[in-house]
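request received
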Amino acid sequence: MVLERVPTGIPGFDELCEGGLLRDRTYLVSGTSGSGKTIFAMQYIVNGIQMFNEPGIFVATEERPQHLREHFSVFGWDLEKLEDENMLAIVDATSTKIGLPSDEKYIDVRPFDTRSLIDQMITIQDEIGARRAALDSTTSIGFSIQDPAKFRVELLKISTTMEILGLTSLFTCEIVDSSGISRFGVENFVTEGTIVLYYTRSENVRVRSLEIFKMRGSNHSKKIHPFEITDKGIVVHSREEVYSEI
Amino acid sequence: MVLERVPTGIPGFDELCEGGLLRDRTYLVSGTSGSGKTIFAMQYIVNGIQMFNEPGIFVATEERPQHLREHFSVFGWDLEKLEDENMLAIVDATSTKIGLPSDEKYIDVRPFDTRSLIDQMITIQDEIGARRAALDSTTSIGFSIQDPAKFRVELLKISTTMEILGLTSLFTCEIVDSSGISRFGVENFVTEGTIVLYYTRSENVRVRSLEIFKMRGSNHSKKIHPFEITDKGIVVHSREEVYSEI
Amino acid sequence: MVLERVPTGIPGFDELCEGGLLRDRTYLVSGTSGSGKTIFAMQYIVNGIQMFNEPGIFVATEERPQHLREHFSVFGWDLEKLEDENMLAIVDATSTKIGLPSDEKYIDVRPFDTRSLIDQMITIQDEIGARRAALDSTTSIGFSIQDPAKFRVELLKISTTMEILGLTSLFTCEIVDSSGISRFGVENFVTEGTIVLYYTRSENVRVRSLEIFKMRGSNHSKKIHPFEITDKGIVVHSREEVYSEI
Amino acid sequence: MVLERVPTGIPGFDELCEGGLLRDRTYLVSGTSGSGKTIFAMQYIVNGIQMFNEPGIFVATEERPQHLREHFSVFGWDLEKLEDENMLAIVDATSTKIGLPSDEKYIDVRPFDTRSLIDQMITIQDEIGARRAALDSTTSIGFSIQDPAKFRVELLKISTTMEILGLTSLFTCEIVDSSGISRFGVENFVTEGTIVLYYTRSENVRVRSLEIFKMRGSNHSKKIHPFEITDKGIVVHSREEVYSEI
Amino acid sequence: MVLERVPTGIPGFDELCEGGLLRDRTYLVSGTSGSGKTIFAMQYIVNGIQMFNEPGIFVATEERPQHLREHFSVFGWDLEKLEDENMLAIVDATSTKIGLPSDEKYIDVRPFDTRSLIDQMITIQDEIGARRAALDSTTSIGFSIQDPAKFRVELLKISTTMEILGLTSLFTCEIVDSSGISRFGVENFVTEGTIVLYYTRSENVRVRSLEIFKMRGSNHSKKIHPFEITDKGIVVHSREEVYSEI
Amino acid sequence: MVLERVPTGIPGFDELCEGGLLRDRTYLVSGTSGSGKTIFAMQYIVNGIQMFNEPGIFVATEERPQHLREHFSVFGWDLEKLEDENMLAIVDATSTKIGLPSDEKYIDVRPFDTRSLIDQMITIQDEIGARRAALDSTTSIGFSIQDPAKFRVELLKISTTMEILGLTSLFTCEIVDSSGISRFGVENFVTEGTIVLYYTRSENVRVRSLEIFKMRGSNHSKKIHPFEITDKGIVVHSREEVYSEI
Ligand SMILES: Nc1ncnc2c1ncn2[C@@H]1O[C@H](COP(=O)(O)OP(=O)(O)O)[C@@H](O)[C@H]1O
Ligand SMILES: Nc1ncnc2c1ncn2[C@@H]1O[C@H](COP(=O)(O)OP(=O)(O)O)[C@@H](O)[C@H]1O
Ligand SMILES: Nc1ncnc2c1ncn2[C@@H]1O[C@H](COP(=O)(O)OP(=O)(O)O)[C@@H](O)[C@H]1O
Ligand SMILES: Nc1ncnc2c1ncn2[C@@H]1O[C@H](COP(=O)(O)OP(=O)(O)O)[C@@H](O)[C@H]1O
Ligand SMILES: Nc1ncnc2c1ncn2[C@@H]1O[C@H](COP(=O)(O)OP(=O)(O)O)[C@@H](O)[C@H]1O
Ligand SMILES: Nc1ncnc2c1ncn2[C@@H]1O[C@H](COP(=O)(O)OP(=O)(O)O)[C@@H](O)[C@H]1O
Ligand SMILES: [Mg+2]
Ligand SMILES: [Mg+2]
Ligand SMILES: [Mg+2]
Ligand SMILES: [Mg+2]
Ligand SMILES: [Mg+2]
Ligand SMILES: [Mg+2]
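response:
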């Protein structure tokens, strides 16, 4: 039995893990604030559409969709166009939380409710038949649920639904420092693997690097690889390694 | 699509981030006590008025407006004059908290109430049509709300209102040491970027430096740059770098 | 009196502990996320069946049985076949937790209930007469019980039941870092020994190693031995030692 | 506008901060147990009376006034005489707390009550027209209030009252180690600056030193200066610096 | 007055403390999991019977008596025989806790109840007239009581009862790392001394060592001595010392 | 005004602090378990009686009086004789706490009650007219009160009563490690000074040393001095210093 791989299309990444993620699994992308998690997640979705013809869903709990569209235009990604083509759905899980109206097509009710998010994903699936999804980020959901045990169960519901809907997904997770791999200590329990993004100082300069920390069923790289955010998005230097202290 | 930049006018700073902040976003200015957060925030507002003709709002939750006026006179900034010209509004969110009368024009009721602050900002907008705002500091609001999850939601309401009112804003945040980038671990979740001010010891002398830790949609400097507080306010040495341990 | 040993069959491991585990005892396998606990536990069960003709039970609280079957096929282990032969029972203690149907033969009800798990194990024993068991992992049970003192009592019930049913068992435990040997500080109180799996950085590469930290009644190796995950599963280098900092 | 300075009269100190404290502000004097906070505060008050003819109020929450009088006699300060001359008022905020009678003129009721302390200060002002005050220490008030958010508000009331009464004040704060600058993390939020007293080991000997950590509106020294407790009280060596690790 | 000493009979130990423990006192044996606490405690009891003709009581809260009998047979100790001779009583304080039947003669009811344990010890004293006792371990009692202050009082009751019954006793305590000397911070308050067992890494090998940390009324060794677990039990190398970092 | 000094009579100690403690004050003696606090406190009381003819009270909350008498006989101190001569009163604040009868003359009721302890001290004062007292230790009182703020108030009541009764006192405090100077962070707030006893490792041997950390109104030694526990009790080497890391 050979397991099916879903390539991220992020330059340099897939060759670190036997060609990509496992089909129908959920993975955690952890990193401190500003480490590149949102870019990584969106690039995975955009590549899915543009390179592999797989529609994608992006659930945004932190950045308002309009900001996402603006920020990602600098990488040459025209999200609005992809949305118009019914290849991309951005779920606005931010605006209504604060009692303000949202112009978005897909909005998530207030306060956070797993059931309604799941219903909405099912509806979207009917419309666009997505194969990939990203939830950015689990951390703000964690803040609203607070109890780690309950948070774990809710994430488990979401990840299982995604798997059942035939989605290969990324969950982002904002950690406070690089000493742990998840914020609330439970996010890695509902996912099949963990990718950690580092943004560390080397003398007076910040350096970005990345590690596949865990990936079930995969003989992945065990090294830490530098990456850059270029004007085309993330580029991983898979042949290079980071030797300095993380 | 080219994103509009709002220059801070702080010498040496804007060239670290493609010309300034993104229009209609909110940024976090974090630092330990005495690191220069209040000066940074006020200089951004004053420069907006004097250099770019953009009126500004300064919400003071810690220092009484009269003290602000006195302290900043040493930098040659005549806040009273700017207020008289209807270019600057200082919201006194300190005085009434302690049951004492305030002579200020704009006062915020007691205890802290997001709704009333938002109403007041809408009123002020009618009067002066501000383009910039500063909230100094989020930390005392955090103390009065206490629950981090609730604090995050209230900050989210304020920042979203500011963005909707067309304000490009700075939120200050007082951290206890430089190991984290926010006090309650949630402030960076409602902002589009984080600027960290350091005040660290190098042998027996304190040195000031600054880092753009995160700025969405921006190819900012990844270095740590020294700055000084001169008799004209903050001056960033954008060409120099700090090599020592932070 | 010579104590009976149960060999794990994991290459290189049994010679570290006088030939294997003690019959009818429960042992803890601790390690951080991705350290190889699930592989270790399943290899112990599979070897029991294939090398020693001892049927086994695998209680899965984290990975869905179907994923386990897929992931372990890469090591050439055909779990489905072993299940069909009535030599292996996989208890699905994951699916129903989230309100979704399970196709599995052995499912555990929701929410976690020690009594029902114990009943199910008794039923399975009637059917397959197992001699080995693995519970992967105790940690998700700990999350749902939360109170460490109560968690300890529930684990004690399970381990004692297993011993009474004539099962020699492994409990896995996911720790956050390698400074402790259990997650909730109580798991090692219900087991007769602790095996710790390390996944640590040596310069820019992760290295796997293993230590028998405690094994009652056994004169075990006191060293730390490197191991690898090969295409046949775990191989311990019992003659080699790890000198670097753990 | 030139801001008025209030000299402490402590040898070597005022030259570190443009001549002294700012008139009508409150400052924090932080330090570990035994670092010299009480001596610093009392010397500021005594100097005010003897060198600048400014009457002073000393609120003692920890040491009984009679002990203060005895301890400070070794520095040649005759507190009783200054009290008789109506230049000094010592508020006994310790005795009644424990249900014992106090012979003191100014006593604070039990348990700690901000309102009554404020009333008392207003009364004292009528009698002696003080210009300086010291509250030694905020920490025991913090213990009785416990909730940091509430403690902050109470301190804010006291400091604002003092400023309105025309008092330039010092608040002492006992920290546990020198890693933070306040005990409950809020004391520095109600004050205009922080002076930290260090009592650290250099080999087998304790050394005293001092730093002006923050002083709003002031271009203060950024160095750490050694000081001694002599038979005339504190003497700061403003020209010397401490290079060793704090 | 010369204080009466109770020799443990553990090779090399008694010479470290003027000949042994003080008669009718209780001592704490602390150590991490696997450090040898249970072996130390049982060897003290077995030696009491075989070398000094003093009957002993062993209260087992963690390991089932049957396991104890099996594990200790490897050291040549025939516990069953000693029990038959009415020289040893093993109190099973584990089995009933989890609702399973116990075949043991002396069982302790569920949940843990100090009063009933005390009653049982009084009964046993009638039957065997013990002079030594061991409670292995206090830590599981701590888990069931939880509140440290209450735990301290219960331990105090047990230790005082033991002293009044004329028993010289050892209490074991499982600590998480070697930075403290007790688990809940109170165990050392009910005992007259503390013996710490270390199980530390020296390069890639674990080394065992032991320190008499405190022994009231005794001029004990202040060094750390290595020990081994041989096929005859613990042997302390009283003339050797451990120099490396613990 | 020259402050009256109360010599401890402990060889080498008084010369470190201008001749002794200040009359009618309370001092804290802090140290880890086994550091020598109880011996220090009892030696101070015994010396008071034998060298300065000052009767003393010893409040024992941890060690039973009979044990104290036995342990201290090795230093040649005949406590029973001193009690018979009405020069020493030992208050048994341990026995009754656990529901067991006490033969002691002075017993403290259960549970700990400040009022009753104070009453008892007043009664004892009538009988023996003590000038010195020791409370060994504050820590077990802290455990029973638990709330640090309440604990502080109770200690304040006891210390103030002692001062009013004309007693110069020592309070002992058991700290967990040498990084703080008190256990609950409040004990030093009710005392006039702190003496810290260290019991630290230098290579493989424990070394005892002592520091006067704070002593109000005193120009004390600022060094760390080694001490020994000899067969006559504590002897401080006041001319020697400890250079190694504490
Ligand atoms: N055009 C760009 N060129 C280079 N770096 C960029 C660009 N746009 C954004 N970045 C970097 O990406 C960071 C934001 O990445 P993001 O994925 O939002 O982080 P996270 O989601 O982990 O907080 C910014 O702080 C900036 O450093
Ligand atoms: N005129 C000045 N010249 C130089 N430094 C000054 C001047 N005025 C204030 N400062 C410095 O600025 C600090 C206060 O900065 P501020 O912005 O209030 O800090 P924060 O808000 O981060 O606590 C003072 O502690 C002082 O070190
Ligand atoms: N075929 C393989 N070859 C090499 N390594 C593998 C293979 N399959 C899985 N792994 C490694 O095993 C890890 C998962 O091990 P697992 O036992 O699930 O960890 P744990 O249960 O401790 O979290 C993966 O992260 C990967 O590093
Ligand atoms: N006459 C003196 N000479 C030298 N040092 C003294 C003298 N009197 C007191 N001290 C020192 O001052 C310390 C007390 O200072 P204090 O201001 O009470 O400390 P704090 O209030 O910070 O706890 C004493 O511990 C002692 O070291
Ligand atoms: N026959 C033996 N030879 C050598 N070491 C042994 C033997 N039996 C047990 N041990 C060691 O003793 C340890 C268990 O000691 P134990 O007293 O139960 O520890 P603790 O009670 O401190 O957790 C085992 O982990 C093993 O390392
Ligand atoms: N006769 C003695 N000779 C030397 N040291 C002794 C003697 N008696 C007791 N000790 C030491 O004193 C320690 C107990 O001191 P103690 O004052 O009870 O400590 P604490 O009260 O700080 O816990 C013992 O652990 C032992 O090291
Ligand atoms: Mg993001
Ligand atoms: Mg400020
Ligand atoms: Mg696993
Ligand atoms: Mg003081
Ligand atoms: Mg044990
Ligand atoms: Mg003691």
